[in-house]
Amino acid sequence: SVKRLADIRLGFFDSAMSSAVAERLTLERSIKAALKAGQFELFFQPQVRLEDFRLVGAEALIRWRHPELGIIPPDKFIPVAEETGLIVPLGTWVLQSACRHLRHWSEIGLGGLRMGVNISSRQFREADLADLVAEAITETGIDPAHLDLELTESMLMADGEGTLKILRALARLGVTLSIDDFGTGYSSLAYLKRFPVNTVKIDRAFVRDLDQDEDGRVIANAIISLAHSLSMKTIAEGVESEAQAAMLARHGCDEIQGYLIERPLAADDFTAFVARYGADGGRGPVPPREGE
Ligand code: C2E
Ligand code: MG
Ligand code: MG
Ligand code: MG
């Protein structure tokens, strides 16, 4: 089938017939070509304040719109892009594209929304990240306060002083910083207080456990209280049920993101969502006012 052939060409299948090296090489070439051909696209997943379910922002999540395979999720190509270094040009494209979307949002009256952008560890270490971010901000004229960079624990733990230097340079630009997938790495919040980080994103694994057992609740509660005691905000990822949202609200979690609200949406679908969501009586006023 066409699908199978395309899978083989792209190396999206596991088989002893094809070595991992050959697969990676094929995928590497395909990613390069796709970047040139403009096949990457940002999707947006809404983030709402738990207090009143008001829309406050969205996370930008990359997708590869492949002409034959359709939409390819990031797990399928980000790891190879990381290994090969292609994540650097890809990450630069993500940053520029995110800022252009932010600019567009402000032009259509959604200027109060914040956008979260994922930064990969290689991009953090190798690219001159602060310069790239500064350029993207200047080129698009966006308010840097609306740009939130999502970093991971492992990135922050790697090398103390070098890391701190990059984080400070980013913070000076006026962007905010989040720690993504919190709790899956080896860092402790006590250690993280050294960094100018604004927000902790509670990993989906802990949110899932909220429904399951007492341990899940204890862990989520501990992350939220510690984050707050260090003056950090919390966003819970992967919230799928009302019950999870209610428990997170009880523990004082600030914001949620997940299928309960909406899946990641293509740009046009996202703006349509914003209009629809604002019209929903139970959900609080949208779009947010500038400056809030
Ligand atoms: P992440 O940054 O932790 O993003 C959250 C992931 O959880 C997204 O997967 C999102 O679609 C998924 N998700 C959100 N709500 C729910 C839910 O209620 N239930 C479930 N089951 N899943 C939910 P996605 O879009 O496939 O992205 C996967 C990962 O790929 C991201 O994890 C991030 O680490 C990476 N990624 C995505 N876009 C970019 C990018 O532009 N640059 C870089 N470097 N990495 C990216
Ligand atoms: Mg993220
Ligand atoms: Mg995450
Ligand atoms: Mg994740």
Automatic annotation (TrEMBL):
The chain holds residues 743 to 1034 of 1034 of the full protein. It comes from Phaeospirillum tilakii. This is histidine kinase. Residues 24-278 form the EAL domain.
